Amino acid sequence: MPNAPISINNFYTVNHCPHPVKTVGILGGGQLGLMLAQSVLPFGIRCVFLEDAPDCPARLLGKVYSSEQFDDFMRACDVYTLEFENTPLSSAQMLEQQSTLYPPSHALFIAQDRLNEKRLFNELGITTVPFLAVHSFADLKTACDNLGLPLVLKTSRGGYDGKGQFVIKSESDIDTAWRELGKACKVAPLIAEGFIKFSREVSIIAVRSQQGEIRYYPLVENTHHNGILAKTVAPAPNVETLTTQAQENVKKLLEHLNYVGVLTLELFVTDTGLIANEIAPRVHNSGHFSIEGSVCSQFENHMRAVVGLPLGDTSMVKPSVMLNIIGNYPNLSQILAIEGVHYHGYDKSEREGRKIGHITIMPTDSDKLNETVDKVVGLLVNKLGM
After folding, report:
1. Given Cys at both, which of 24, 107, 166, 358 links 281, Cβ 3.0 to 4.6 Å?
2. According to the 3-state scheme, what is the secondary structure of the chain?
3. Does residue 2 carry a pLDDT above 50?
4. Could you tell me the pTM of the whole model?
5. Residue 365 has pLDDT above 80, yes or no
6. 192 beta partners
7. Which pLDDT score, from 0 to 100, does residue 22 have?
C-alpha cells in the first residue's frame, strides 16, 4: 500500500516534534514584520499583524488587524512577538497576561525609557557614558555644569533615527534645547548624556532560545547620516579584541531579562574599550545583511526562538555590506545589473528621510566588495550622505 502524503502538520506529528506549526501574531506591520514573516514561510508558519496603517509593508504576507480589532488579533494567534520597541507597553502586557509574548514585556519597558536602560546597564556592569536625569530647566543647567559641554539632551521616551535629541555645544544652546525638548518633561524626564570620544559605532546582535541557548552574530560597524543608519559593514574590521566584551555585555542583558528572541546592543568604540549606547528588543536594521550574509538570518532565528524551534547557525557566508535606501528608490534594473547585489524593497512610498528598502552587497570575489559598494552608492539617488 503506497504511503499517504504527509502534510506539514502530519510531519510534525510523525516526527514527534513538540512544537507544531503556529500562527504568530506580530505587534507592528512595518518592514521588520514583513521580513519576519518572510523568514518562516518555508516552515509553513503564518503571521498576522497588529497595525493601524492599512498600507503597511506586512500586508503583503498576512492579515492586518487594527487596534480596534485587538481581541480578534488575540484570538487569531498562538504566540506573539513585536517588531518595534515603541509598541504600546499596555498592549504587550495584555497579550502576556493572556498568552505568550517573546520577548517579555519587561524588556520593552526597559528599552522604552533611556534612563531605565542606562541604569540597567550600570547595574549589570556594562559601561555607559555619564548621564543625568533632567526634570526641569534648573536640572539641565546643573547637568551642563556637572557633565560639561558638549552634551546630548534626549527625550527618555520615544524618538528614534535621530529624533528627540539636541546637541548642546555651548551655553548659548541651553535655552534653545529646552525650548525644543523641555515640554517632553510633562510625560517623563529628559536624559543628559556626556560626550565621549569614540572612533566608530558598532552593534552586536544575539539570539536566545526558550531553553537559554545563546548564539551571536558578528560585531558589525555602522555609519549614520542625519541620525539614520546608512551603511553596515559585516563583520566590522579590526574588532577581534572587542568581540568578547560585546558578547559578554549582550549575554548579561539576555540572561537578566530572561529574554527570548533577537536582542541588539549598540556600542561606541573608544580607546578604553566599548561603551554601551542602547538596546533594541527586536530584529535590527544593522542585521539586515544576515538574510543573505549569514547561514541563518536574524529574522529566521528570532522566529525560531519565538515558536520554540532550535536556533540556526549565525556564521557568516561571506563579508557583506548593507546599504539603506533612504527617501528615493534607485533604478532597479541598474542595481540588479551589478554582480553580488541583493535588493529588498519595502513597498513604502518615497519620502525624505524614510527608510524604504535596503541593499546587501556580497560579490563572489570578496576582494571586489568595496569596489562593488562604490558602484551601488553611485546609483542611489540620495547617495546616503557618503
Report:
1. 107
2. CCCCCCCHHHHHHHCCCCCCCCEEEEECCCHHHHHHHHHCHHHCCEEEEECCCCCCHHHHCCCEECHHHHHHHHHCCCEEEECCCCCCHHHHHHHHHHCCECCCHHHHHHHCCHHHHHHHHHHCCCCCCCEEEECCHHHHHHHHHHHCCCEEEEECCCCCCCCCEEEECCHHHHHHHHHHHHHHHHCCCEEEEECCCCCEEEEEEEEECCCCCEEECCCEEEEEECCEEEEEEECCCCCHHHHHHHHHHHHHHHHHCCCCEEEEEEEEEECCEEEEEEEECCCCHHHCCHHHHECCCHHHHHHHHHHCCCCCCCCECCCEEEEEEECCCCCHHHHHCCCCEEEEECCCCCCCCCEEEEEEECCCCHHHHHHHHHHHHHHCCCHHHC
3. no
4. 0.91
5. yes
6. 132, 153
7. 83
Q: Tell the residue number behind the cell numbers 539570539, with chain if given.
A: 207
